């Protein structure tokens, strides 16, 4: 009797989510595919999707491929630049977030929740508003320069907003650091204090404790945080648009955004998007598999 | 107790085929949802799905049947059957919401409130929506999702708007104030006999800067455009976020005059010059020079003339407005253009929309709007020779005043054949990719 009732219970409970995914992920993804393998209206230059996969055309994907790895590979610098920015930003986020998460998990005691909420509170404000705030702070006569130059007494002429790569990377770090903090905290909070004490009792130094106990046990959090922030960073266009506006800091997201905004090139935007998606699927699959293996082991 | 996991059922071949079969109706449904809007132009040009990757395989306008207007080839657009102008002497719609579609910050709210006040007997509400660029505007007007009554556009897309049956022709009897506009715009080359449009603003494209940050007379250089290739100003300067404007400026800098060229050699040289600019001066790409230059975020930028006039109001406290400068070729032989107002066909209040066009061409209204947007209306009452003396434009920005005769010698950015447009886009993408 119980079996019969639960046989339908879980599928029914899961149905809304499945419908949601089908409507708002699978269908849009299929539309993007149809646009990428479609054609262009000759007059209005708008995309003409081809809905039947048997009739798909590969010209738009071919153009994007040529621009990535062909002789006319002017997309490649932006791709390499994006990878570099993402690696630097992810490592920086990890370096910033790890001690904070460790402190919160181990030493914040009963104020753990409060500390965490305060750390994340600035990020309740929308990403766009925070970037706009940074634009004000980083103006030549803004607060940041006022502090650095001690109110103008030190003659330093720094224009943060002149299209610098470091401003973009800083924006990425600032924008995404809480999404690294939360999974790290979750992983570190799960480590039993008695385990740490046992390691200490067995003679582990502080460094050994970190290297042989804390780090391995927080690895799922590190991997989750890294994936959680690197995936959206790969498609980020807003940070460079807001804080730099320079072609010299253009990322893949900027190329996609430009193609979408250019008449007749939505198909190329879709093709670029799919290529990025395929590349990003690899770490996602690896992560899922490693998680599954870890579950089996435990 | 946790429920025992359900045994995983392997996907059989039959099941896979069943699932795949489900995808076919889905594809059909999506296809049916797609809106096909065949063109209804008199030539019978139809919107076919021609294959085009970068657009280079797309047919030229002669194939599409849409002529390309230019000063040398003025065009009188057809009036499509069923899209005749509204009748004369109709009363404006009462209790109406007049929907405007415009760039942000490109019309003064006070002017719109003035219209509401003037037509208060009809209980009119004006609602303003904005777009970021013309492709976005065209797409939205085409979908017809919002019944815009008035759109603020430029002539790059006029042919498509007419042949797509997306705008309605004007009944001139409602717009007597057109006589107050410059003569050039009472019979413009892009819309002979102003069948579909009335002028809104005129502008040149030039160079704006703050001379306290760049204490150099840019206009005194043998070739002022060279400033964008000057590594001395690396990181301090910007070009407009507009492919046509930057490519056009580069062509002029290299001694060309055809800013709409299809010559592959010229376009190749232009691309190389733009990439050289990128490495030498590392320009930013933005259309917010009107705030960035006054605020000192940029020292110098390619910009439109109206940007510098309105830029005075964005200067930080304590900065003298006289530091702003603008240069465009003093002979008028530079990039020049104008925007216009037109009436999307889907608008629900065509009579009121006609009244609005007439209202915007009223001298006092046009001048009031100019005082806020900074873009010059082509009105006879606003004499370019006296705009500085009359206090409309400060002395240091006298070069931002547009003269009617410049439209005889300036270089407008025209609509391009799709294949050429695709070449321009490829150059722009390479430039913006920082390659």
Provide structural commentary.
- The complex is a heterodimer of chains A (298) and B (435).
- Chain A contains twelve helices and two strands.
- Chain A is mainly alpha-helical and 298 residues long.
- The radius of gyration of chain A is 24 Å and the shape is globular.
- Chain A has a domain at 75-261: MetI-like (MetI-like fold, Orthogonal Bundle).
- By secondary structure, chain B is α/β, with parallel strands linked by helices.
- Chain B has two domains: 61-202 and 336-412, D-Maltodextrin-Binding Protein, domain 2; 203-335 and 416-432, D-Maltodextrin-Binding Protein, domain 2 (3-Layer(aba) Sandwich).
- Helices cover 31% and strands 14% of the residues of chain B.
- Chain B is built from 13 helices and eleven strands.
- Chain B has helices spanning 13-33, 61-64, 109-118, 134-143, 158-163, 243-253, 264-281, 289-295, 305-311, 350-360, 363-373, 406-409, 418-432, and strands at 97-102, 125-130, 150-154, 167-168, 197-210, 237-239, 284-285, 300-304, 324-327, 335-344, 411-412.
- In chain B, strands 1, 2, 3, 4, 5, 6, 7, 8, 9, 10 and 11 form an eleven-stranded mixed beta sheet that branches.
- In chain B, helix 7 runs parallel beside helix 13.
- The model of chain B is unreliable at 1-62 (pLDDT under 50).
- Chains A and B meet through helix 1, strand 1, helix 2, helix 3 and helix 11 of A and helix 1, helix 4, strand 7 and helix 13 of B.
In the CATH hierarchy, what is the class of the domain at 75-261 in chain A?
A: Mainly Alpha
Radius of gyration of chain A: 24 Å
Count of β-strands of chain A: 2
CATH architecture of the domain at 75-261 in chain A: Orthogonal Bundle
State the shape of chain A: globular
Structural class of chain A: mainly alpha
Order of secondary-structure elements of chain B: HHEHEHEHEEEHHEHEHEEHHHEH
Low-confidence stretches of chain B: 1-62
Relative helix content of chain A: over 70%
Q: CATH superfamily name of the largest domain in chain B? A: Periplasmic binding protein-like II
Report the span from N to C terminus of chain B: 60 Å
CATH architecture term of the largest domain in chain B: 3-Layer(aba) Sandwich
Largest sheet of chain B: 11 strands, mixed
Give the % helix of chain B: 25-40%
| Separate helix tally of chain B | 13
